[in-house]
């Protein structure tokens, strides 16, 4: 290990150290605010350290890790999202009187796992990152254990995620058995356009099952609505942004490296998954009456859109996918922040009924929520529109007409349920409504901070996208450069 | 060829094992004597009478201890792996295992402080509570 | 020294994996579901060892160590969750616990 190695791993070291420090702090004396402050500082420091690391990228730590600009971008996304989740959680957990401090250890560890995924280039580190992420998530989802549905969601996630890890592992073992290497780059060279043997093909299929579960794409989506519904709202935001972002970063790197577009069978498999996700996600969301469940189904559909970007397989696809993921992360984080800020103790404001007439009581919050819904629907002047535009142009560029048509049609279906929430908010309130304790609660300073930051980002991204686009292109193009140079 | 080893002795051996066990069980079933008096099922002379079922409810604390054992037990695997490769990994490896054991120590400290290692309610706490209650009564 | 071909090992691992999967789908008791998942994960670990033996590398065994450690962590969290569920629902039947629909 050289000094550069340590330097380039700085963000991970900061996060891991912070987790240990929090543990010591709890052992000395429990204090919710101090622990939350340490976690916030850790995420901020880790985020800032990324800017220093750009000086040494791309840096490889053979055989496990690679730190390139692409990884740095995704790590930035993960740390920023975790920062926002920490602020929200502080607000959300304050009213509970059981041990709250361990929550932040788990949050730090989950972020550590997700960022490990972003820099992995070897099965061992992929497995470790994924498991650190999901084992922390089991406990985070079931953290408010006085709720019944919280425990239920934790159990469901535990069973399905552990099972998907088993699939992923078995797939990895078969790929290793057939290729003789667990390093992505070696694999790319060994394969280099050659036909996949039956063993490797089964292995990749099992790995798709495993990754598909983590990303919650159809037909591996069954856990999503229940877990989104049952988990505390900040944790749901974390799953939707950090967990999916980390796994998607990994998937993108893996498939760009082995150049998936040479394998007809894999492309067809992913196209089927993408189409099914877009259709099922959007149609099933129409049937829901709970905002968290609607957002869960919409997340399935959005992952389908992301796959379209990544399947188009031209030089736009990685840019478009990353752009869309960033826009989606900002938006969904904003939406769940509002759900979390409006929730009272023991009961979350997640039923559509709770939002009826919200505008007349909380105009600012409703306006922000409306902006988030518009962005999810892909209406111009929001981040979601820019993301969707790039995906469409990537799809059109490589003439994936079927995918593009399904995308456009399902987006129209999507408009219905996003507007349903918006319409509910602006409809006149009735007097005999059961009052939700959380609705009238005043929003704390940290909540205002998160919401204001996200709203500014959302509109800025939507109105002046040029800066974001060039930033993302600069950061992400390294992925293709690295692997193209390797293949040539 | 190594694959063309003679398998039939093994098959004969396996078969004969099953055969002998089957013969023993079946013969003793027909030849052995059986009785069914009042005391047959009871414990032998000075043995202890059974009470209740064998399915006891065990305190959750045992599960917690079992989990700690499971986890700390597995950490030994990594330490032994390091010990095997002691010469090859050198000082960097030493530093690594130092950090690893350091984290384990912090975890132990944490578990001790939050009271996860207390098998039972501590005597001091009971006495303290008792005195407190006494005072309230007076 | 007679070496067993890797395919035999993979068939064994695959059989174990499928058995675990069947157990996962058939069983209703949460403890048995966890046990089935453990069988699946360990089958994958066995497959790694056979693959490592084929290539003459220790990588497969190293992976198995990580799998062991991670499945222990998973079981620990799982048992903790099960204790809480038993405390709350007084049952370990998966269908009783599952209330959310849609």
Q: What can you see in these coordinates?
A:
The complex is a heterotrimer of chains A (488), B (138) and C (102). Chain A is mainly α. Chain A is built from 20 helices and two strands. Chain B has a domain at 60-137. Chain B starts with 7 loop residues before the first helix and ends with a helix. In chain B, 1% of the residues are buried. The model of chain B has no long low-confidence stretch (mean pLDDT 83). Chain C is built from four helices and no strands. Chain C is elongated, with a radius of gyration of 17 Å. At the B-C interface, helix 2 of B face helix 3 of C.
How would you describe this structure in keywords?
heterotrimer; A: 488 residues; mainly alpha; two-stranded antiparallel ribbon; 20 helices; 76% helix; C: 102 residues; 0% strand; elongated
Number of strands of chain B: 0
| Poorly predicted tracts of residues of chain A | none
Q: Percent of residues of chain B in beta strands?
A: under 5%
Unreliable parts of chain B: none
The topology string of helices and strands of chain B comes to HHHH
Total discrete domains of chain A: 1
So what's the oligomer here? heterotrimer
Strand content of chain A: under 5%
**Total helical elements of chain B:** 4
Q: Pair with the most extensive interface?
A: A-C, 42 and 48 residues
Query: If you average the pLDDT of chain B, what whole number results?
Result: 83
- Biggest sheet strand order of chain A reads 1-2
Most strands sheet of chain A: 2 strands, antiparallel
Shape of chain A: globular
Order of helices and strands of chain A: HHHEEHHHHHHHHHHHHHHHHH
Radius of gyration of chain A: 21 Å
What percent of residues of chain B adopt helix (DSSP H or I)?
55-70%
Largest β sheet strand count, sense and barrel closure of chain B: none
Distance between the amino and carboxyl termini of chain B: 92 Å
Short description:
With 488 residues, chain A is an all-alpha fold.
List the helices and strands and how they pair.
The complex is a heterotrimer of chains A (488), B (138) and C (102).
Chain A: H1 3-8, H2 10-28, H3 32-53, E1 59-61, E2 65-67, H4 69-93, H5 102-119, H6 123-141, H7 148-179, H8 184-191, H9 198-215, H10 223-230, H11 233-257, H12 264-286, H13 291-311, H14 317-341, H15 358-361, H16 363-377, H17 383-397, H18 401-426, H19 445-463, H20 466-487
Helix pairs in contact in A: 2-3, 2-5, 3-4, 4-5, 4-11, 4-14, 4-20, 5-6, 5-11, 6-7, 6-11, 7-9, 7-10, 10-13, 11-14, 12-13, 12-18, 13-14, 13-17, 13-18, 14-16, 14-17, 14-19, 14-20, 16-18, 16-19, 17-19
Chain B: H1 8-31, H2 60-84, H3 86-113, H4 123-137
Chain C: H1 6-26, H2 30-55, H3 59-89, H4 94-97
Helix pairs in contact in C: 1-2, 2-3
